[in-house]
């Protein structure tokens, strides 16, 4: 129904706004002079694997 569609649009609009806020804040933190990257957490296996593959292809891993 139209109400369900409206509710879904409102929900995803809110979700996307919250996600953008988190991403923007994270980027500000990473841009700080005091930021030091740390190891990946066990929940970040996909980004860690991507980094390893990239470094391998670039001849650095």
UniProtKB/TrEMBL annotation:
Gene3D superfamilies: Naphthalene 1,2-dioxygenase Alpha Subunit, Chain A, domain 1. GO terms for molecular function: 2 iron, 2 sulfur cluster binding; iron ion binding. It comes from the Bacteria. Residues 5-58 form the Aromatic-ring-hydroxylating dioxygenase alpha subunit C-terminal domain. Transmembrane segments: none annotated. InterPro entries: Ring_hydroxy_dOase_asu_C_dom. This is Aromatic-ring-hydroxylating dioxygenase alpha subunit C-terminal domain-containing protein. It comes from Eiseniibacteriota bacterium.
């Amino acid at each position: 129904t139209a109400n369900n569609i409206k509710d879904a649009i409102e929900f995803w609009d809110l979700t996307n706004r919250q996600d953008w806020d988190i991403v923007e804040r994270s980027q500000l933190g990473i841009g700080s002079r005091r930021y030091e990257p740390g190891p990946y957490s066990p929940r970040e296996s996909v980004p860690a694997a991507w980094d390893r593959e990239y470094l391998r292809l670039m001849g650095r891993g």
